[in-house]
Design a protein that fits this description.
The structure is a homodimer.
Chain A (H helix, E strand, L loop, with lengths): L6 H12 L3 H9 L3 H8 L4 H10 L2 H10 L2 H10 L2 H9 L3 H10 L2 H10 L3 H11 L6 H4 L5 E4 L4 H12 L7 E5 L5 E6 H5 L7 H4 L7 E2 L4 H10 L4 E5 L5 E6 H19 L12 H28 L1 H6 L1 H5 L1 H25 L7 H30 L2 H31 L10 H23 L2
Parallel strand pairs in A: 1-2, 4-5
Antiparallel strand pairs in A: 2-3, 5-6
Keywords (chains A, B): CBS domain, Cell membrane, Magnesium, Membrane, Metal-binding, Transmembrane, Transmembrane helix, Transport
InterPro entries (chains A, B): CBS_dom, CBS_dom_sf, Mg_transptr_MgtE_intracell_dom, MgtE_N_sf, MgtE_transporter, SLC41_membr_dom, SLC41_membr_dom_sf
Pfam families (chains A, B): CBS, MgtE, MgtE_N
């Protein structure tokens, strides 16, 4: 059932383009899903790929443009004229068109907008461009079916048929008053099962979730997931229905959010991908490396200050990497669990129960690890007191790392900072510094300096 | 618009339960969304919460049961009789009911199934229990609207109205032949705009994505996202339509997948949450800590073997944490980008272009970091050759870590192992060991041992 890209298909496409066999190209295009066709375009020459958009019917190619990887699309758009781009955009949903326009340079943006043929559509697109990307306004589209509360079911079905022409998925029919203010909704199923003369005002459901244009996209995602919604209407400050967000728009938000947490944990600031430029990749990564470096320079001071200790007990120093790694691992585990708990709502704020559970887990892990080390060190180096000192300090360091790992993300969250930062290089390197300090302090205490 | 949980509401609910005011409870329940009601139940006593399910109409409470956090639901289910549970399940969609049954003990499972009233529904649920959780069969539900290819539009609409009674979202109408084999689909919109006497076989669309019961859930998610589907039919080995997966089922798969990557990166094996037990939390975390410990013991050997070197050049040892952290950070960054690239398809296999880009980024970062260190070390310690040795080795270590970070996830992916493991403790600690080896080897080379 599933499409598989093949060398033959790529060659066939290339040949058709080279021989400018537009008719056969159109046939090939019709046979394929636009997402599959986009995949093949990734494999061929950029000028050949551009040819498809220059020559074939925009009604067919617009969706393909949408499915391309960002950098290929960018390159193709550069090769198309403003008029050619406008033709593609005329075929797309308002929010998809607005997204593509958002990728263009300032001058080309204005040119493309002026070339749009469908005036209503163009107005909607320009309207969408006003909203920040990470708000309900930025992810909504203008396509929706709305009916007036004063109509009856018959008028409603007629109107709906007209409006639904341009909409791939109806989901809900929204009910508005004469001022376009959102009053409620009707389901398609209700329409199918109600007599045609019934007044809309008698059948619509007035209980309805909605968001305003400036609601944050992650909040929209949260609401839609909590209430299991497939679409949510968006209203402006006056309560007027201005757009709709569907679940497929939200999947991207959910994925981006998860990706962002993952990237922050890995010490990457911006949303980057494998096909970004060296400059962008470096810009997203270098700051965390430098922060890590600066913090670890502090660690070098701590070690320098303890030189006399490890000159006397040389095995202390050789376990520093083990200590750092263990502290780092425990700390990241602790904060990752808190970050996910905050994200999915199982943890809302500091909880004494949870904190003592975390300390119990760390205590058990610390005890097991320190027992291993005590035995290992005693067998290998026969310095029992040093082994004892190492074991005790590793327990203390583990408890400290677990505490930091639990409390820092909660503290950040309380202060409206993304807690995911607490799973990244900043916290692991800070853990290193404190860990080494504690290690030598405990060791000195036990070995008597 | 949005629901806010309040102390008053909790107290009101507690009071109604304590006074057994079932009528008012029902009113309160009707006024609220089940997801909101579930949130309040999290805040009250477990026996009080159980009362709701024992006394109130299952038609109302079943959805609430579904929305509860896993551990609260588990506790409530323990307090309910098999008959009481069966009453709730009779009200739920087949896959939701099957999920809840899956959480029960073996004996209770059988008891509950025997108590189910709706025989058809019970058969469907039992059928779903056969499939592994992470397959299309495990996440599909039985609720769908299907029509026979030999009907006409009028019969179809009539049948649909009957079938749609039990289905919250219709999405697509599936067309089957007399043997129940999937032939194609009809959209609600098509039905609304086609004359009633038209034969279904004339209007249905035969091009249609479907999956088989044993397709992996992540693969279903990929297909649905790629083709932007809101529902996909599931067929058995003989091509017979057996169920349907909707986009809200898939959101959970997408989130779980992202969570899993994040947890693997943080060194957590199982899918755990803040409210899991100490035992479960320890079981998910300790193995990685022990693996890290064992690998870092190797690091201690490497340091022990180089004791003579850092006794002569003492500043070498104090930069070991800096070196480890930088190698670790670079390695995790590199592998996180690859893991995400593999997940979202921008990277499919080893790419020479991408690898040389990664090396360029690391080279630039390494150069900047080593320059800082060279200057810093020269100013602080005035041992120019040692500073030079540290700077050179850090560049070599960074390049090595970037190489390992890029190639290991690609290698794992090629061998069908989850590449996300390569962002966790295993790779960071391995990086430590190699990093320290390279560090001292390069230093020895430059300082002439």
């Amino acid at each position: 059932m599933e499409f598989k890209i093949s060398k033959e298909l790529i060659q066939q496409l290339e040949q058709l383009i080279q021989t400018k066999n537009d008719q056969q190209l159109e046939v090939l295009l019709n046979d394929m899903h636009h997402a599959d066709f986009a995949e093949i375009l990734e494999e061929i020459d950029i000028d050949e790929a551009t040819y498809i958009f220059k020559v074939l019917d925009s009604e067919k190619t617009a969706e393909i443009l949408l499915e391309l990887e960002d950098d290929l699309r960018e390159n193709i758009l550069k090769r198309l004229s403003a008029k050619e781009i406008a033709e593609e955009l005329d075929e797309l949903d308002t929010n998809d068109a607005a997204d593509i326009i958002g990728e263009l340079s300032k001058e080309k943006k204005a040119e493309v907008i002026s070339e749009l043929q469908d005036v209503e559509h163009a107005k909607d697109i320009v309207d969408l461009l006003r909203y920040p990307e990470d708000t309900a306004g930025g992810i909504m589209h203008k396509e929706l079916v709305k009916v007036n509360e004063n109509w009856n079911v018959l008028t409603c079905v007629k109107e709906m048929r007209i409006q639904a022409e341009n909409i791939s998925r109806v989901h809900s029919i929204y009910v508005v008053d004469d001022e376009d203010r959102l009053k409620g909704r009707l389901s398609l199923k209700d329409l199918l099962t109600t007599s045609t003369r019934t007044a809309i005002s008698d059948v619509y459901i007035s209980k309805l979730n909605s968001v305003t244009v400036d609601t944050e996209d992650v909040e929209v995602a949260r609401i839609m997931q909590k209430y299991d919604l497939e679409a949510i209407p968006v209203v402006d400050e006056l309560g007027r229905l201005v757009g709709r967000i569907t679940i497929d728009d939200i999947i991207d938000v959910i994925k981006d959010e998860a990706d962002k947490d993952y990237q922050l944990a890995a010490g990457i600031t911006n949303d980057i991908e494998t096909n970004d430029s060296v400059y962008e990749l470096t810009k997203a990564r270098l700051p965390w490396l430098l922060i890590g470096m600066v913090i670890e320079i502090i660690a070098s001071f701590v070690l320098k200050g303890n030189e006399a200790v490890f000159e006397k007990y040389s095995t202390l120093i050789i376990f520093v990497p083990l200590l750092s790694a263990t502290a780092g691992n425990i700390g990241v585990q602790a904060s990752a669990i808190v970050v996910q708990g905050l994200a999915n709502g199982t943890l809302k704020t500091y909880s004494r129960d949870y904190f003592s559970k975390e300390l119990t887990v760390s205590m058990i892990s610390g005890f097991i690890i320190s027992m291993f080390l005590l035995v290992y060190h005693s067998v290998m180096y026969q310095q029992y007191m040093v082994g004892f000192a190492i074991s005790i300090s590793i327990v203390v360091v583990i408890l400290f790392a677990a505490t930091l790992g639990t409390l820092v993300p909660l503290f950040l969250h309380k202060n409206k900072i993304d807690p995911a930062i607490a799973t990244g290089p900043f916290i692991t390197t800070t853990n290193d510094v404190f860990g080494i300090m504690i290690y030598f302090a405990v060791a000195k205490l036990i070995l008597g300096f």
